Amino acid sequence: MPGNRAVVYEGPGRVAVHEIDYPTYELKDGPGVNKANIGRQARHGVVLKTIASNICGSDQHMVRGRTTAPEGLVLGHEITGEVVEAGPDVEFVKVGDVCSVPFNIACGRCRNCKEGKTGICLNVNPDRPGSAYGYVDMGGWIGGQAEYVLVPYADWNLLRFPDRDQALEKILDLTMLSDIFPTGYHGCVSAGVTTGSTVYVAGAGPVGLAAATSAHLLGAAVVIVGDLNEERLAQARSFGCETINVADGDPTDQVRQLLGHDAPAIGEPLVDAAVDAVGFEARGHGQNAQTEMPATVLNSLMTITRAGGAIGVPGLYVTDDPGGVDEAAKEGSLSLRLGLGWAKSHSFVTGQCPVMRYNRNLMMAILHDKVQIAKNVNATPISLDQAPQGYQEFDKGAARKYVLDPHGVVGKRAA
Ligand SMILES: NC(=O)c1ccc[n+]([C@@H]2O[C@H](COP(=O)([O-])OP(=O)(O)OC[C@H]3O[C@@H](n4cnc5c(N)ncnc54)[C@H](O)[C@@H]3O)[C@@H](O)[C@H]2O)c1
Ligand SMILES: [Zn+2]
Ligand SMILES: [Zn+2]
């Protein structure tokens, strides 16, 4: 049996590569493992040799100490890999298959899974609906920023790539199917983006850039991306987005100028659709740009979006935030101007993206060269040992999506 090495959260601001156990078909006790999940059998699972596993803004919330993640948690929910072993109850997935793993763990048997709501599966996490690999409050499934990882309910969860060589050729794009590409796409779909839409995406991190890419793919007429990080805004401009720097002032005025609405009447449409790709660590706008103001993005999106429009909220909001700006924020309560959203009949879609709803079609768009997601998010392969540095640079706002490459497969292809 080979060894296994993985990226582990050591406490606020610190991750390191540790030796961990090679996966087995049974959940064992460990940091973050829900007691009710200890001893749980996963004969329906496979062991994947990780080909690519990406660092995500969702990981950063934990690593910044902004969640109740326990020290010792093995990180990583964006996994692509090769099946090297299949449990006795696996019927269709085969050893040698190269697959994308949706970051949501889902059973395929519960009421929500049957409705396609795989982000809130009822059977995989004793704490609450919904689960993910290597994440706080998500049941304790071991993360995949590792050489090897267990994928439960493998026949249901895995998306198999049709051709191994073709998959390896496009692996930097395909690795975005485990999370950010479907997540950005879901943000747009749930905001009603379609041919000719005007769209505002708050946040130019990888999820925002994936949402902007998706808006173009869906045929949007104008895609405006806002952030306060100039390097990331330049990345958005590199594929045809308009950009605004929210440190320069309220995005509403800037969006209005870009769209040429000089003196709009109250309620005049600004954009048709908006996506929050920022989440609860949002900064304020203008002179508040250095201050954390967790409700800023949601409130500004209600101002910016036309009456009758919709707002997609992939940006993460938590129920417990030890670093929250005040007592209310510490338990996830934000000061939302909901009256405005109500007056404009807005709808909001929040929560984990149900990856499985989109990953197959987005895979086809990648394989047939309809979209350049890796280029748009500036996918950057690094080794497992470089993970701590990757986390640090990403935290400082590098305009990159770091792709961990534990077996040196991606780097070889990208070279
Ligand atoms: N719903 C899901 O399924 C899902 C999946 C993946 C990620 N997420 C969440 O999506 C969010 C974005 O992820 P990411 O990897 O791109 O993170 P990220 O931290 O790299 O990007 C967030 C960006 O928002 C910018 N920002 C801060 N305040 C802003 C403001 N007021 N207006 C505009 N931009 C502002 C930051 O400068 C940063 O560039 C995170 O909260 C992450 O947890 C959710
Ligand atoms: Zn992610
Ligand atoms: Zn389920």
Automatic annotation (TrEMBL):
SUPFAM superfamilies according to UniProt: GroES-like, NAD(P)-binding Rossmann-fold domains
Gene3D superfamilies the record matches: Medium-chain alcohol dehydrogenases, catalytic domain, NAD(P)-binding Rossmann-like Domain
Taxonomic path: Bacteria, Bacillati, Actinomycetota, Actinomycetes, Micromonosporales
GO MF assignments: oxidoreductase activity; zinc ion binding
Protein name stated in the entry: Glutathione-independent formaldehyde dehydrogenase
Organism, as annotated: Paractinoplanes atraurantiacus
Alphabetized UniProt keyword annotations: Metal-binding, NAD, Oxidoreductase, Zinc
NCBIfam families associated with the record: fdhA_non_GSH (TIGR02819)
Keyword Metal-binding: yes
